[in-house]
Amino acid sequence: MTDPNLSASQPLPQKPKKTESSISQREKSEGADPVGTQAAELSTVYEEGLEVKARSQWQLAFGRFLRHKLAVASLILLLLIFAAGIFAGQIAPYSFREQVPLDARLAPTLEGQHYFGTDVLGRDYFSRTLFGIQTSIRVALLVALLSTLIGTVIGSISGYFGGWIDNLLMRFVDLILTLPILAVLLVIAALAGQGSPTRVAIILALFFWTTLARIIRGNFLSLREKEYVEAAKASGASDMRIIFRHMLPNSFGPIIVNATLIVATAILVEATLSFLGFGVQPPTPALGKLIDDNRGFMSSLPWLVIAPGATIVAMVLCINFVGDGLRDALDPTQRRLRA
Amino acid sequence: MPEPVLSIRDLVVDFGTEDGVVHAVDGVSYDIHPGETLGVVGESGSGKSVTVMSILGLIPQPPGRIVRGEAFFKGVDLLKVNKRELREIRGKDIAMIFQDPMTSLNPVFTVGDQIAEAMEVHDSSLNDDRLRAKAIELLELVGVPNAQRRVDQYPHEYSGGMRQRAMIAMSIANQPSLLIADEPTTALDVTIQAQILEVMKTAQRETNAATIMITHDLGIIAEMADRVVVMYAGHVVEVGDVGTIFHRPRHPYTLGLMNSLPRLEVDERWLKPIPGQPPSMINLPPGCPFHPRCELFQGREACRTERPPLDPIESQHHRAACHFKHELKNETSKFAQEGAAS
After folding, report:
1. What is the pLDDT of residues A96-149, one digit of tens each?
2. Which residue of A124, B49, B186, B207 has the fewest C-beta atoms within 10 A of its own C-beta?
3. A222 and chain B in contact, CB less than 8 A
4. Does the beta carbon of B186 lie under 8 angstroms from any beta carbon of chain A?
């Protein structure tokens, strides 16, 4: 058999030196090490020769994600849309309320940068859509953040401690899940009126944490029985330490996937609410509101509905594909990807 | 004789199940002295693990319930201290090595992080560099090759034997005075088992810790233990030096165990099992729990009605719980017979 070290190290002259030095290092510490020293030297040589790279779970997951072409493409498109929304103030050629009566009812054109056309008042719809995206993102990301926080905390407590705490929290979750969300949201909006993006987000988050709480609870129930959790207990770790250091990091996969999907749902629900006139307070533009404003011009000025509508669809689709890719990437038991 | 490190007295642990109450541990007492290795043998369900898990507060309660008993460790009764105090003892003064190294390490952290954590939990004054250096030192001690690099690897990059070495490194990180190894080699293949036992001996030498070695493998007991506790159905049936237990057991169950082992040197056509089945832990036979399977029983009243005490034979160090142990006075196991023959 050929020596893998020799053949690998010949083209790289600096390699043998490195190997020697690590062997002599080992010799110094040999006194305390009666076991496996020979094996140690052997594998030092062997590993230096082959350059085996240690990869963390995140690196592995990232590698798996990159192989998911559709998800990568969606992520790129999504980042572009998000960047456009976040920097709407810099990118948009017009402000969202600026009216140019002479340019009213224009079809999409490159002239005057009216890429998505203009409405009856001469407002530029490219700009309005960009600001609409900004509102959507603000609401959706805040909803995802808040509901992930609430869901994780409640799910962890429920799953880790079990017993009556679990029972109480889960019945509360059941209660929220039985409520018809849209109806309740409409009632709240009707009572409290329209609000700022932040208020809409907080209200949505109060309904969206339940799925994650259930997922985390289920995950914790199975993690609780894992031997490394018992080993952590046996080594004197406190409850909080076990939850945060050992169990939560092992639940990151479902948490991230769920957060992604909540962003998509939040965009849709926010658009629905705005469409129905119960969402974000005008004049702050919202994509749902843009569609609602121009329902009547569907036949004469169809781009005014298509542009914000297509934007919503594109964002939600992209997020779902990214979520799909993340789910595959973060599940270490799944080796092969779907086509 | 020096003060025992751990002294378990009359421990009773029940588990409530749908079919009734399981008396998993029923009046167990034993001591372990500084620096010694105590082997605890028994078949599955004999209560050998539950005994140590319950004194560390690691059995789920409910369904588990510690009915009574004492477990003195350095003058403190572990069954009376509060949760926080017990947590401080766990992993610091009493460390545990688990059966399955494949699942006992957290997959999302590097091995080095996990060894460091074991130290950090009990001593927050150590900084990251110091922790890392100590982790490398420990990995070298337990014979993980290339520890400098291995310390930053994840458990999935370790083989089963290497993981068990890492677990041992974690357990001795805080210089415990008592190590509890719960079937440390059961999940490993035979060649690795020998290496791991070697590492355990090294670890023991380094820390000078007393060790409780829980196993059902009599070979490991013969290899490692100084003294042996034999358990059956939640009871201690015999305690003694390893030589005494192997050569001149005075409890019919121990004798049966020893004689059931196949020997390479002896030409045997059949294995000699102990007749009958282990008893149901819910309806333990009254009197001596072993009597339905016992050769000495022969229908005698005492075996059926009276629980035999764990009384000394000849010396204080050898005790057996059998009413008729004197009838085994001249019995020897086949180990002793071989020894005499050769």
Report:
1. 777 777 777 777 777 777 778 777 777 888 888 889 999 999 999 999 999 999
2. B186
3. no
4. no
Domain that holds residue A99: 58-330
Q: Position of tokens 């992520």?
A: A75
Domain with CATH 3.40.50.300 in chain B: 6-34+47-216
- Two tokens at B14? 């029940």
Q: Do A159 and A44 belong together in one domain?
A: no
Instruction: For residue A97, tell me if it sits in a domain.
Output: yes
> Chain A within 8 Å of B113 (Cβ-Cβ)?
no
Are A116 and A303 in contact by the 8 Å Cβ rule? The answer is yes
**CATH number listed for the domain at residues B6-34+47-216:** 3.40.50.300
Highest mean pLDDT among A4-8, A40-44, A192-196, B109-113: B109-113
Do A15 and A113 belong to one domain?
A: no
Flag whether A205 is in a domain: yes
Q: Give how far B10 is from chain A: nearest CA, Å.
A: 23
Give the pLDDT score at B18. 81
Chain A segment 8-47 residues within 8 A of B by beta carbon are: 22, 25, 29, 32-37, 39-44, 47
Does the pLDDT value for residue A28 go beyond 50? no
Query: In chain B, positions 218-277, which contact chain A (CB-CB < 8 Å)?
Result: none
Residues of chain A with Cβ-Cβ distance to B110 below 8 Å are 56
Q: Tell me which residue in A47, A56, A252 faces B146 most closely, judged by beta carbons.
A: A47
Residue-wise pLDDT for A45-62, tens only, equals 444 445 555 566 777 788
Number of domains in chain A: 2
* pLDDT for position A213: 94
Closest residue by Cα to residue A139 from A262, A51, A232, A231: A262
**Beta strand spans in chain A (E):** none
- Return the number of other C-beta atoms located less than 10 Å from residue A314's C-beta: 14
Predicted confidence at residue A264, as pLDDT, reads: 92
Pair A151, A211: CB distance under 8 Å: yes
